Amino acid sequence: TAIIYDQTCATEKRRRRKRGKLVDPAKRVVINELVCEGCGDCSVQSNCLSVEPLETDFGRKRQINQNTCNKDFSCVKGFCPSFVTVEGGELKKPKKEGRKSPFDAALGALPLPVIPNAEEAWGIVVAGVGGTGVITIGQLLGMAAHLEGKGVITQDAAGLAQKGGATWSHIQIANTPEAIHCTKVGTAEAHLVIACDAIVAANKATLAVMREGRTFVALNTHGSPTATLVNDPDWSFPGAACEQALGKAVGRDHLGAFDAEEVAVKLLGDSLYTNPLMLGYAWQQGRIPLSYDALMRAIELNGVQIDNNKAAFEWGRRCAHDLKAVQSLYAAQAVIQLVKRQSLDEIIAKRVEFLTGYQNAAYAADYRAFVDKVRAAEAPLSSTQLTEAVARYLFKLMAYKDEYEVARLHTDRAFTDKIAGMFEGDYKLVHHLAPPLLAKTNDKGELVKRPFGSWVRPAFGLLAKMKGLRGTAFDVFGHTEERKMERRWIADYRAGIDQALARLNPDTLPKAVALARVPEEIRGYGHVKARHEKAAKAKWDALRAAM
Questions:
Q1: Does any domain span residue 217?
Q2: Which of 25, 46, 128, 449 is within CB 3.0–4.6 Å of 196 for a Cys-Cys bond?
């Protein structure tokens, strides 16, 4: 049996929306990161790389990249109450009146680079991921070469946009068509690699076109998730390893690396201008055999966001000329976002404050007393590893997200302020939930989420105030198997740590720390959490037995 699913792909829909050929639904997805458990079920359900990791004080969560979101909303299927759709209104754009212009005379004049002579074929490879404009950069270079009457051949290898597939555009430019003898940049023949994505740039296929002393690499160091994140929620972007591989291939003096996406977002308000910014950077380095006027005309003929793309090109030039000066234009914002490593006292204090809001001061004091006991037992070993692990993961267990807590976090001022900071106009919030007492089940016996309009928010406020019922005989939600399991883990965790403390010495410390960190693997809600808990319980039992 063959099943043919005929539907316009999400990326094509995005292109049509940009061109005004398809209705753009006034609907966006936002994740409340405090409700998010970082389980990754949203990525599993959607296979979408616009669901990105977000590092927070309470561990890794998820966020939606609004600049790349294709609006197919499949991520909402993830079994998690953190998803909120914002219907109506629109995303706030950075105010143009407060935005710096790269053409501002106060920034100083830019020197023109020496344009290389393309007597022989000049090989350029643009490497990135599908759906971000890699092919468009190749087309701009091709059009600019055509406008100058030069010989040019482009060849593209496109990847799947939604999956973040590797994409290459090979461009060969020469003064005359006769100087170009093949359709693709050959092994060790590239003069320039515009590396819009570090992982694709460090791919064997891309490394093969490089040669030390010949190839210059313009590298965007910004880390973007890959499909690996779907199967491994703890995956981290291998940026340092990729940059090291590129430096080894071409030599450090032939590698220009900076976070181009950060510059694009800070100064242009959208990550979609990253690639034209990279183009301007490479041109200012004197690595493209085309004139400024030809490239500007090519951008005009492309007909999409002409002024912004020209500005992106110009910012790229300024980054090549004086990167620190460009970064200083948004340095104040960058300092605010800088996350320093917290001290142990700060980690504990933050969680005591949170648990006080979660339940009450007595509940928080009980947490602190246990952590202090661990700290005192570990002190003779001149270590705080175990104390920090217990501080993080006893908190995680004690702050289990029941109905009262989800309601509290969704009505928290920090979340509503976040929404107000992102959107403007007349909008309403729709929550996607599966209340155990109301939700239907699918053929697997799993609860199914459904939308709840803005009317549910007053109910959230009332439910949040009922948190005092948590754990009492009047806690109607506390009788479910999930809540019983969560409370059982708190007791088992304390008993397990007490057992570890009784045998604590330099030899047993690593095992005790490993034991204390097991709750990190208990993530999600409902059937997703049950699956993770089962695996974590097996690991917990094995480690306790080993102790």
A1: yes
A2: 128
Same domain as 89, residue 140: no
In order of 136, 225, 247, the CA distances from 212 in angstroms are 27, 29, 9
| Domain, as residue range, for 133 | 108-328
Handedness of CA 112, 113, 119, 124 (dihedral sign): negative
Alpha-carbon span 413 to 425, nearest angstrom: 19
Whether residue 397 contacts residue 486, with contact meaning beta carbons closer than 8 Å, is answered with yes
Strand partners, 152: 173
* pLDDT of amino acid 307: 94
Q: What is the pLDDT of residue 160?
A: 61
**Which pLDDT does position 184 carry in this prediction?**
93
CATH number at residue 217: 3.40.920.10
CB contact at 8 A, 388 and 344: yes
Q: DSSP 3-state helix, strand, coil percentages of the chain (rounded to 5)?
A: 50, 15, 35
What pLDDT is stored for residue 164 in this prediction? 63
Q: How confident is the model at residue 338 (pLDDT cuts 50, 70, 90)?
A: very low
* pTM of full prediction above 0.90: no
H-helix or E-strand containing 540?
helix 526-546
Q: Which of 188, 239, 247 is nearest to 217 (CA)?
A: 247
